[in-house]
Amino acid sequence: MSAAAPRLVALAEKILSGPLPVRVRAWDHSEAGPPDAPVLVIRHRRALRRILWRPGELGLARAWVAGELDVEGDLYRALDLLAELIWERPDDVPRRGALALARDPAVRQAVRELAKLAGPALPPPPPREENRSRGGLRHSLLRDRKAISHHYDVGNEFYELVLGPSMVYSCAYWEEGASPGFAGEGPTLEDAQRAKLDLICRKLALREGQRLLDVGGGWGSLVLHAAREYGVRAVAVTLSREQAAYARKRVAEEGLTDRVEIRVQDYREVADGPYDAISSVGMAEHVGEARYAEYAADLYGLLAPGGRLLNHQIARRPLADEEAYEVDRFIDAYVFPDGELAPVGRTVALLEEAGFEVRDVEAIREHYGLTLRAWVANLEADFARAARLTTPGRARVWRLYMAASALAFERNRIGVNQVLAVRTPSGGGAGLPLRPRVWSESVSG
Fold first, then answer.
1. Which ranges of the sequence are coiled-coil (predicted)?
2. For the chain, what are the domain ranges?
3. Using one digit for the tens of pLDDT, what is the confidence trace for 42-90?
4. Under DSSP, is residue 163 helix (H, G, I), strand (E, B) or coil?
5. 350 vs 289: CA distance, rounded Å
6. 146 pLDDT exceeds 70?
């Protein structure tokens, strides 16, 4: 039998109508493709069956998670070279496989030959890290708890390894011209996360004695910073029991139990307003389009007149046909079940419809690329331990997801924005400084 790699490359290039930008190493150790390119390692022909039955991102992801597909060399460069094949091609292939799309007889023949190379067996079951237990209505209280547990209840030690001492799982705020210092030079991830926490507190104009609600409070980093540095009384709500246990331990260790409360609670169940300020950082992506108006109205109702909301949220680019939007299949199956992204304009409109006055929108897209690269560096520095703390498949999911997301932010396919909104009193005085972005100025009244 002839070597597999040259056949794979020739067939792929015929199907794609262009050169394959990476080198290929097949399960028989044969290689083909550009000599200086990253190497796509196909360890088992099962990977081909997954891709043929689920062409596009999901099939590739399943092969990656199962360890049947890997990259040797620079992962970012490999993903960048493959971007047009993975992200920028419509992932709308019917269940019956690639033959359904191949109209060119030559392409159909190439797909048949690829199927023969993959072997006659049916596609293997998805790796077990894939989320497949989704009982209940989408974005119901029960289903949202399950989705959050899938993502966050994978072990606090794993997140300590990836996130570092700050334990902040959202975009950091880097200095101008910064490049993360992964070798002891330049600003650290912890510096940038501390700067982000303080930026939020200053935008919210927190003062001693005020009440702060942090929706989706994670491991408690923001409420700890706000209570320690600004003297507020803070409540953080999360649906993750592991996060809550970790956050409560931190609160006790810092002696802040009289000022900080950590609850396992859905934001829809919070009923002890009014609060002077609300932060929602990296949580609104879990809300969903159908529930967003409810989310905005609930937060508006929990704020005192004059209170501020800081909504920190990932956004996608708008589509010409918004009804054509589909949730990313890999992210939905392996990372954030039921997560949805919306254009920033839609988010602003829904906040305004709820009664908020939107006063500032700050786009910090480039900051997320830097943050994700720092997380990937943490993961890669101790990957074997990360795999032991969860599973090898879960560690591989996080490496692929974070590296691909870093490129998505850098290529402007997605962004992240901090939206500052106010429940403006009936008299119209919002209490903000006249000069925008001068967050250190005192609030009138």
1. none
2. 4-118, 145-422
3. 999 999 998 888 877 788 889 999 999 999 999 999 999 988 776 555 4
4. helix
5. 10
6. no
Q: What is the CATH number of domain 145-422?
A: 3.40.50.150
Specify the pLDDT at position 37.
94
User: Residue 130: which of 68, 67, 65, 86 has the closest Cα?
Assistant: 65
* Alpha-carbon torsion (225, 227, 233, 238), positive or negative: positive
Q: Are 405 and 419 in contact (CB under 8 A)?
A: no
- Give the pLDDT confidence of 263-284 residue by residue, as tens digits: 999 999 999 999 999 999 999 9
Token pair of 397 as six digits: 């999911």
**Angle at the Cα of 216 (from 165 to 319), degrees rounded to 5?**
105
Partner residues linked to 260 by β-bridges: 234
CA distance 225 to 220: 9
What count of residues does the chain have? Answer: 445
Give all strands of the β-sheet with 31-32 in edge-to-edge order: 31-32, 23-25, 39-42, 69-72
Pair of tokens at residue 290: 């159908």
* Range 434-439 average pLDDT: 68
Q: What is the DSSP letter of 304?
A: E
- Contact, 291 vs 271, CB < 8 A? no
Do 114 and 48 touch, CB atoms closer than 8 A?
A: yes
What angle, 0 to 180 degrees and rounded to 10, lies between the N-to-C axes of helices 156-163 and 392-410?
A: 40
* CA-CA-CA-CA torsion sign (169, 171, 172, 177): positive
